[in-house]
Amino acid sequence: MKKKILSIMCALAIVGSAFVGAKVDTKASETVYVDGSELTHAEKSVGKAVLQTRGVHTLEGECCVTKKGRGKIYVSAATTAHHKVDFIQACLRVERYNKSTGRWGQIHYQEGTARNDYYVNTTRMLNVKGGYYYRSTGQHFCGMDSDPSYEYSTSITDGIWID
């Protein structure tokens, strides 16, 4: 009798896990990525630069896109160095997803630059068309004038839906 009950419980566990697995697979298939960004309905998305190696100067780079109401987004990009550098820059690009072409298109660009500093950022509040996904990307540079090969990294956010 014990074996029969144990067998039934195991069968129910297997059947139950099959349904859980099916639900996870369905959800995973609904996730849409375009050029490295997930299309989401989140309020905010932050992208961090992934450095292959730590670098001599660059500590980190980050970009962000945040909903600020109907047809408004706040975007930013920042670059941080390990120490004071001769040149540091954060370039911010804002892109809108075009569903008919399946591509991101640039709608705004700006730069923040500093000299003899360890941090720079650039921010902007933008009025945008509703009914689209928006993302921001950052390009992060820093270095010393004595070494013309500046360090470089990129960051990218997920796309967030704006009403």
Walk me through the topology:
Layout: H1 2-30, E1 33-34, E2 37-40, E3 44-48, E4 58-67, E5 72-98, E6 103-127, E7 132-143, E8 151-156, E9 159-162
What does this protein structure show overall?
With 163 residues, the chain is α+β, with helices and mostly antiparallel strands. It has a single domain (37-162), classed as Immunoglobulin-like (Sandwich). Helices cover 18% and strands 58% of the residues. Strands 1, 2, 3, 4, 5, 6, 7, 8 and 9 form a nine-stranded mixed β-sheet that branches. It is elongated and about 45 Å long. The protein starts with a helix and ends with a strand. The model is unreliable at 1-28 (pLDDT under 50).
Question: How would you sum up this structure in a few lines?
Answer:
By secondary structure, the protein is an alpha+beta fold.
> Which spans have pLDDT < 50 for at least 5 consecutive residues?
1-28
What is the CATH domain class? Mainly Beta
Q: Can you count the helices?
A: 1
CATH architecture: Sandwich
CATH topology call:
Immunoglobulin-like
Largest sheet: 9 strands, mixed
- β content, as a range? over 45%
Roughly what is the average pLDDT, rounded to an integer? 84
The count of strands amounts to 9
Task: Give the overall silhouette.
Answer: elongated
What structural category arises from helix and sheet content?
Answer: alpha+beta
Q: How do the SSEs run, as a string of H and E? A: HEEEEEEEEE
Count of individual domains: 1
